[in-house]
Amino acid sequence: MIDLRTHCGDQRRMVGYDELTAIIRKDDVEVSTGDLVCLHTGFADRSVAAATAPDPEPVGAVCTVLDGGDRKLLNWISESGLAALISDNVAVEQSSSVARETTEPGPVLPLHEHCLFKIGVPLGELWHLSKLAAWLRENRRSRFFLTAPPLRMPDAVGLPATPVATV
Amino acid sequence: MNKRWKIRPESSNWGYFGTDDQLDRINLLTEDRVLEAAKEVRTGRNFCLSMQLDLPGGNAINPSRLPPGLKPVIREGEIVFDSAARHDNPLQTDLLCDDAMLIHSQYSTQWDSFAHIGAMFDADGNGTAEHVYYNGFKVASDDTGEGLYGKVGVVNLGIQHMAESTSKGAT
pTM score, two decimals? Predict the structure, then answer.
């Protein structure tokens, strides 16, 4: 678990390699080959709170997203050997519903292109990580056991999961 | 010679786990890796990491994705909800409920398969970019140009491969 929310707060902004690796060092998080790496931003937590409020309203653009345009960040994903990248926000990186200026041919979702198209890292999105992140912080841990298969529906391109973290 | 691609994208690892591989890094979740990860289980406490599947709520985030909906199941012309299992035999005391669902698969807590995002890329080296996905796979059939059920149902890289691998690990 990499807990971005504790360090970055709930403002929508992009986090790149330098900031991510500084947080990893500061919290003494180890990322090694085969890890399923979770990024806690707080977005799902805010969504649940907004949807269950007395006057529900869209949560809007809150909490951090990774900077998919940061080459050093994409290289880190490759070299870390992580097996999957999971977040509690919509698209790990800035989602495609936000207009991106493009001046040359290339992907709108560069982190998706890198992970799904180039290096075969599945992406988990909109997981609810806040309670686990808080427990881990309280217990000075960052690692846990994760069981999270998607539904076994053939030929679908994405599917819900009910992931279970065991500590 | 590789049957799917001559050129692979810069900084990709196509072929590393074999030319027919559809799991890539999920291959790293070996039995040894699961045993190693199991050492992280110290209290037995579980956390559910899914939101309710009808959240984040509404469709402001992505107008084309709607919350899941429960649908009735019809049995012999009647909706199966809090119904007697057999109308013709009052001696049978069973009551039945059943339901169906329509799920936009990426509305809530979910995994993206490698079929979610591909690219226009000249993998066959003929000078023209084509539709291609991880490890040089196509998601549409070469014969029909469509998916398994019209414009839905990928012929490769479906999410079932991940389910069948029963992903386990730790972070």
Answer: 0.94
